[in-house]
Amino acid sequence: MELMTLSDEEKAYLALRKSLESYSFISNETWQALRGFSKFRSLTKDCILYRIGEVPNSYAYVYQGLVRCFVYDEKGNEYNKNFFDEGMFPGSMTALLTSTPSILAFEALEDALIIEIDFSAYRKLMIEKDDLKLFQIHYLEKNWLLAKEPREIEIVQDNATARYLRFIDKHPNLVDRLAQYHIASHLGITPTQLSRIRKNL
User: Beta strand 112-118 with 58-64: parallel, antiparallel or unpaired?
Assistant: First the structure.
């Protein structure tokens, strides 16, 4: 008997459901509704997923690849706010919630396969479905409330070496996938400083 091979799209949707259910059970009814307003996409390296100054209408789920979220400072320098690898959800949440132009940009650092989720339809479904509400609560608790405070404290209290060691401890799978200047930008230091830190370890 010949085994059926799943397409990348089907694998991506299976991975999305698994990621959702790592936070809270999702019923088949809710899942089918969510699939109805989601779209599978491929991105090439350096593709801008969401641009600064645009009002977004969706957020994404990363099945394969790596996406960075960055902003420009007053001098025009890039600052990498976050990195999103497999299983994560990049999107400009403040802009989505307020329907205002995003101050953040999201760029694919590798060829990527993603699922884009219509935000307005997602919000409507979340209001209707308790299982999606529970997912949202647990996701926000883990990725916003519990993760944000330590990050803010380490920026103020830790020196550059401590911040780098914390980064590689928390994201060991990203160190070899990111250019040194992207890591340096995220840590708030120059690539030269990062090179010096790595040599001294």
Answer: antiparallel
In the listed set 73, 94, 128, which residue is the last one of a domain according to the structure?
A: 128
Residue numbers of the domain that contains 85: 1-128
Neighbours of 54 (CB within 10 A): 13
Is 139 among the domain residues?
Answer: no
Q: 150 and 124 in one domain?
A: no
Between vectors from CA 161 to CA 145 and to CA 90, what angle results, nearest 5°? 35
What is the CATH number for 12? Answer: 2.60.120.10
* Predicted confidence (pLDDT) at residue 98 exceeds the cutoff of 90: yes
pTM of the full predicted structure?
Answer: 0.90
* Alpha carbons 191 and 180: distance in angstroms, whole number: 6
CA angle 59, 182, 180 (to 5 degrees): 145
According to the model, what pLDDT value does residue 73 have?
86
| Domain assignment present for 137 | no
Q: For position 143, what pLDDT does the model report?
A: 81
> Per residue in 127-163, is it b (16+ CB within 10 Å) or e — as a string?
eebebbeebeeebeeeeeeeeeeeeeeeeeeeebbeb
The residue-averaged pLDDT of 10-19 equals: 97
pLDDT tens for each residue of 111-151: 999 999 999 999 999 999 999 999 999 999 888 765 666 66
Tell me how far CA of residue 29 lies from CA of 15, 19, 132, in angstroms. 17, 17, 11
